[in-house]
Records
---
Amino acid sequence: MGYTVSEVAEMSGISAHTLRYYDKQGLLPFVDRNKVGNRDFKDSDFEWLGVITCLKKSGMPVKKIRQYIEWSMEGDATLNERLEVFENHKKVVIEKIAEMQNYLDKIDYKIWFYQTAIESGTAAIHAQNNCVFTEGMDLSTVPNLHFPEQQ
């Protein structure tokens, strides 16, 4: 006996609504059905759900995930295509990480900006230093800017 949608939702953290949506989008061809037609998840299906969640949360469109799953269901004849899916998606994720790092740098800069302004009693201190954040700026050149992991 397997698991129901509700049980899988509780165990995986993926909502029942999302599981049903994934099924309608063709992302769950590996999930069996019981005698009355309800989804009947197996323990091995959780690995698939983990991969789907990873790809979805890292920005892969459902259409591409579906293609990857279809290729997986075809077996070894599609190993090259599946490898290419992950190599291409890795590039996308690396670009997103770089973008997020730029956002984090700006946030760290603004934290430093306000901390030093509070310490000196005015934000005008930064006007004297012509202190302006620019994207791609080397934050190691900003005086007294310390990131949490460096403290």
Note: The longest strand covers residues 32-33.
---
Amino acid sequence: MKKTFLSLTSGILLLGVVAFSSCQTADSKNDSTESEKETTESMNEPTESKKMLRHVVLFKFKDSSTPAQVKEVEEAFLALPSKIKEIKSLEWGTNNSPENLNQGFTHCFFVTFDSEEDRAAYLPHPDHKAFGAILGPHLDKVLVIDYWTQE
């Protein structure tokens, strides 16, 4: 009878420990779930994004310009960010639209500035002017559009 009582007592004690552990695990799971919810919610909150000034430049080259001359213009434009600190980024590419609405413009350069003051420093900058001297003999038309990013 003592063995049965001890076994029964041990079993109840063991059951109590397991039950208590389960509650602790469930509570910590709820805590981490709450923490995960807070993290997810803060990640989904709208953040203040900084507006950027975009300077879009499209070039149409003269028919007489050779591929080597066009390449020289590309390289000269791509060198500008290393020479003009106000340029925050530069992206570029050549037209590949199947719509045939490019009106002869083949190259797009996408320059980003933080402010109108930065753009104002860029436009008369000696390195920008030197680039213009390289571009000039090969340029048929240019189209420039500047805008502030919108969200």
Note: Confidence is low (pLDDT under 50) at residues 4-30, 39-43.
---
Amino acid sequence: SMASSKKVFEVFVSKIPWTIASKDMREYFGQFGQVKKCLLPFDKETGFHRGFCWIGYTSEEGLHNALQKDQHMLEGATLQVQRNRKVFAGQKTNKEVKES
């Protein structure tokens, strides 16, 4: 149905070290469920990503599994993972993140 396809099963991940690439994120978060989207915004000025990322799952199960895990460690770094409550809408979200 149309209604169910509008549901968003996303986590917002922050405190990502610059050594970690999009494919590492997709691989790591793929252990919890099928990843539909992995968005790791890059900063054109620095050439590095900005240290935060959106991971979207195809189902609520993936989201639930990712949120159940106590500590997310990747390459020795502890990632901060929370449920994404705002639907990502392009550049607007970047501005909101800076202001908070």
Note: The chain has one domain: 2-99.
---
Amino acid sequence: MTIFIDFHTHTFFSDGKASPKEMFETAKKKGIFISITDHDTSKGIKEVNELPVIPGQEVTTQFGHVVILCNFPPSPPSDIKGLVDYAKENSCVVFPSHPFDIFRAGIGDHVFDYKFDAIETFNSKANRVANGKAKEAALKLDLPGLADSDSHVPSAIGSAYNAIELSEFNVDDILDSVRKKKSKPVEVGLSGKAKLDIVVWHIQRKLKK
């Protein structure tokens, strides 16, 4: 059977609006599994250990954001070389998120300097030019492309995900499928409601500071 997975979402343990359980339940209603990839923390994952969620982080490296996905709540270094080494040593998957988005800490041409497992080639919040450059880089490096929502609000879930042929949810099998280029990116785009919710949440966060 085919399962659908969004490898890049955020909760209120970093800069997202909702709880890990709310994000999971929203995705479940849409028939999608998620990875929780809060910025530089695995606290959110520890709240949903009993649920079928992929543990991860979006790590703030010296060059920009890189996502790591593991079968356990990771505690990776922030140095990008150390992060890639940590991923290899622990059988994790590591990929640059929105790498050419100059407004959201993409690592840019550093995608060519390290041995990643994949590249996020469609980020629902990145512009067309940035996503296009990411696709070109994936082709040059012969790496699988991933489509992710980068959701910070529940309504953005479903705007991008990946299709994988598996009989059941199993983190190790999912990560292995990514490495073997057996995942297919599905590009949907943000709904009008999601776009509005993102703007409102951005304003609310600004007012809280």
Note: Residues 2-208 form a domain with the TIM Barrel fold (CATH 3.20.20.140).
